[in-house]
């Protein structure tokens, strides 16, 4: 986005001497709206607000012919001659102090350009809702549920209001959402069930900290650990930027290196941000950092808006030295930032799935480069983009090839499911069942990975072949028990599945495929009396459920943990003797150029959960394609062999890391409308490529792999090119001035990580 005020500034600063002195002078604020308007707008700052309107604060401005009041972000201020055309005035100031520093304003502008997003979208994304809702006194009071238990059962309208007030909300909005009158809300305020959010936000408000677990601090590091730490300490002490990758096998002590680097950061009086990919990993990471450093700020999606706001204030005050959190914690307002660490940097959860579709790794590098501080990445299975940047010398790689403490990587046993003797009636092969028995008899624990939730992956009629599908999505319904419920994992639709086929009336629909729920049931049947728990998005919905389950497993209150990918990475349980990968091929054949990379990463990561203690361990991988390079490399704990195989393929096809991809997804209630608009975009892009897009190509349009989702038909297309900056410029040129039909919506995803 260029500065559209440059020409005006030149005129103001170089006024001819012969002009009169009574030319209108004043202060102009440049503001960005959160949504709707793409370009910045100028407003006159009235005398009463001069000095309070400043970059980083939000202001209220009139918009459009109706002059409706709109909150906007002030991004620049200038004083001098006013333009001849009259400007509308800023109405008021929302915030008592700037919410965004000059560096954060610069970052958000860069993010908008990098991921082709609106600047206002990015500004909204970097500020937690709890911070944005804490407005000045001009606005209507914000109400929030107090959490107090009601003396009597709430009425149906009261229950709706309390549910809607889980986060701070105005009374008008509560009345609209709950479809009730103001009297219902007033009564809840009188009884103390609703309170002023401002009052609650003035209280400490921070989430209760877990008791820190004992954490051993090794007296000395291994040579590889010490080498990695020295590589980090050099730029840290010299106050310069460098990006350093710790490429270490699972159990090689990467976390201890992080901890030592943070120790040095705090000793310098500075702050550190530690990013982890999954909410399930945050408690364990926090435990380790709390045991070493005491107070730690936590930022993740399971916090309430009030708790997040309280954490935000503590970080901004500088009273907390260590910030741990998921993707958005990279925006934490650290006034003395000295170090950023991204653990399990290969994880796709670091890419935002909705606009603005940023990647936290790229944002972290921008921040680290701007602040002149080190960025540390860690993984046993680095993304190919990261690996390539190390190979070309842009980033530094430190290898940690061995486990610390003398433990060895576990032996991996591959079970070929194409062999009739390897198959069983259930999901577990005889070899895997024998391995589970061996681990339990030896006093160890077991982890079983199946990256498919539910009871059966689909339900089908044996007679006519009809399968139960979502009527809003192009997806089979997944059977969940109890209740014989068919759930769409695309839109969340829940329906009761019929006993007989709705097409041919044949009885008893057949349940096909296995999900984690069915696997859990089979394990309980095969091993009666064994303590089993399941971790997937169905069982981990309530707040604190991740911590409770993992704490129980760590305390040996559970023997077998069944789960999806959330159990595959970053977890350290010394008593796990066996890890079973029930279906290693689950994602291998998806329509995604990263499918093989993700499969190798997932199998390698979950295999690394085994054998970390004195008892040793084994891994059993069930697969129908044991010869695939991803499976073969994971089975040998040789991720680098997979990288050497995959990189030439990516280079030949101009896929990342050797090229950039921009994906378009078009949605509409009508398939012909989605197809037509996808065709229009394709024509514009191909014309732009023909006119000057050397080395670029357009693929598509075609129906998306999931062709219908949430009652919208989906078409997609891709543009590939060797240079990301040139590719983004071409996309902007090709899409400029387009007027989207009313019944169509479309998105642009720069460097996507999901292709479905």
Mean pLDDT: 87
Question: From the helix content, strand content and strand pairing, which structural class follows?
Answer: alpha/beta
- Gap between N and C termini: 30 Å
User: How much helix, percentage-wise, in residues?
Assistant: 25-40%
Task: Could you tell me the CATH topology label of the largest domain.
Answer: Rossmann fold
* Count of the domains: 5
What is the CATH C level class of the largest domain, in words?
Alpha Beta
- Uncertain residue segments: 1-12, 199-204
The value of Rg in angstroms is 28 Å
**Superfamily (CATH H level) name of the largest domain:** P-loop containing nucleotide triphosphate hydrolases
Named CATH architecture of the largest domain: 3-Layer(aba) Sandwich
Total number of strands: 30
Task: Give the gist of this structure.
Helix content is 32%, strand content 22%. Helix 5 packs across helix 6.
What does this protein structure show overall?
With 756 residues, the chain is of the alpha/beta class. The chain folds into five domains: 6-98, GIY-YIG endonuclease; 142-202; 223-405, P-loop containing nucleotide triphosphate hydrolases (Rossmann fold), CATH 3.40.50; 407-457 and 513-649, Rossmann fold; 660-750, Ribosomal protein S10 (Alpha-Beta Plaits). The protein contains 22 helices and 30 strands. The strands form seven sheets. It has a seven-stranded parallel sheet with strand order 11-12-10-13-14-9-15, with helices on both faces. It has a six-stranded parallel sheet with strand order 16-26-25-17-24-23, sandwiched between helices. A five-stranded antiparallel sheet has the order 2-1-4-3-5.
